[in-house]
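Why do we care about 3D structure at all? Because function follows from shape, and shape follows, mostly, from sequence. That is the central idea of this module. The next example makes it concrete: a single protein chain, its amino acid sequence, and then its structure expressed as tokens.
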Amino acid sequence: MNDTNKTMMFDVFNDKKNKAGDILVSVYHALEEKGYNPINQMVGYILSGDPTYITSYNNARSMIRKVERDDLLEELLKNYLKINE
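And the structure:
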């Protein structure tokens, strides 16, 4: 049953972070499948902003450019700290 009397919550910030995380994972796999070292390539992209560090295979380059680099870095740092608490 769908209760239309309840208010739905929408959090733009959480949605943006989930999107960044999903994109990072997809790009990682695309780089790995093409035989690149995904960590080196992604660090190169985040530091320089040069999209040629990311393969166009499986639309990875286009996907990663949809997210600001600072949002990617924030997502990485947040997850690293959560794992290493």
